[in-house]
Amino acid sequence: MNEQNPNPQNPNPQTATTGTPSQRETELKQQLLEIQVADAQLKVDKLKREEAREKQDQELKLRQQAAQTERAELELANLKRESSKANASAQEAMEYTFSEGVNDLSVKVAIKELGELTRRFPGRPLTFILTSPGGSVLHGFALYDYLRSLSKKGHMLTVQVFGMAASMGGILLQAGDIRQIGEASEVLIHEVSSGTMGKVSEQQDRLDFSHHLWDKLAKILSKRAKETGKKDAMTPGQIKKKAYKFDWWLEAKDAVRLGFADEIL
Questions:
Q1: Which of 95, 119, 127, 168 could form a disulfide with 90 if both were Cys (CB 3.0 to 4.6 A apart)?
Q2: How many CB atoms neighbour CB 238 within 10 A?
């Protein structure tokens, strides 16, 4: 005996309650997509928050960099003002500082700036502040002669040594009408250096010229020393003998005693 379905409109009550397998799969897919959408939205929100934080950090860094740049610009402006004041003060005081090696460029710059300074203040006393390891003899002679020409034009020239007046620097010291040296400073006197290459005859020519330059340097040193009337003043021959194959360093007191400087600062 078969049971009758009480609801002829729904022949399968179980199917009506749970749905067909295809419907169930559709619902699960829909739920999975909703979960994926929610996860994606969370990810997007997280990325946006991170982007906003990164943007804030960048803006903060930019503001900090801008502040640092502004401070650096203010410091630079202050330093330029101080430098300008110091330079103006040095010019008013007629001071020129030469603190480098003696070479083509340094001598050109020195002659140019000294020329401008002395044309601006003709006849005023001039102080040449010197710290130099020496260098080119011929370029050194150019600056030495120029300094002496300024003296002849009426500028009382004082050369002050701080640290060292080595090699050609020691000759530049002799350009001063007044030669002063710091108590802890040193003067170096030595033979002219000469590098020779080429044929023997050419090498001999260069050696002869170097000997000629060394003779001139020794005569300058000796002449200025004798002008002081120091009893220990040396002849050119004595100077060359003392510095033969030898770097002759003199402390300030010895430089004054031998007449290579006038006084200790």
A1: 95
A2: 14
Alpha-helix runs per DSSP H in 93-135: 104-120
Model-wide pTM > 0.70: no
142 close to 107: Cβ distance less than 8 angstroms: yes
Tally of residues, the chain: 265
Lowest mean pLDDT of 5-19, 65-79, 138-152, name the range. 5-19
pLDDT tens, 119-153?
999 999 999 999 999 999 999 999 999 999 999 99
Ramachandran region, residue 142 (left: φ > 0; alpha: ψ -120 to 50; beta: rest) = alpha
- Distance of CA 51 to CAs 37, 43, 62, 63, 253, Å? 21, 12, 16, 18, 73
Query: For 71, which DSSP code?
Result: H
Per-domain residue ranges for the chain?
17-92, 94-264
Please check the confidence at residue 236 and state whether its pLDDT lies above 70: yes
Q: Which segments within the chain are labelled E, that is strand?
A: 95-98, 126-132, 157-166, 178-181, 186-189, 248-251, 263-264
pLDDT in the model for residue 16? 46
How far is CA 228 from each of CA 69, 159, 175, rounded to the nearest angstrom?
A: 57, 16, 14
According to the CATH classification, is domain 94-264 in 3.40.50.2000? no
pLDDT tens column, 176-221: 999 999 999 999 999 987 655 566 666 777 788 889 999 999 999 9
Catalytic residues: 167, 190
pLDDT of amino acid 20 = 78
Amino acid occupying residue 97: T
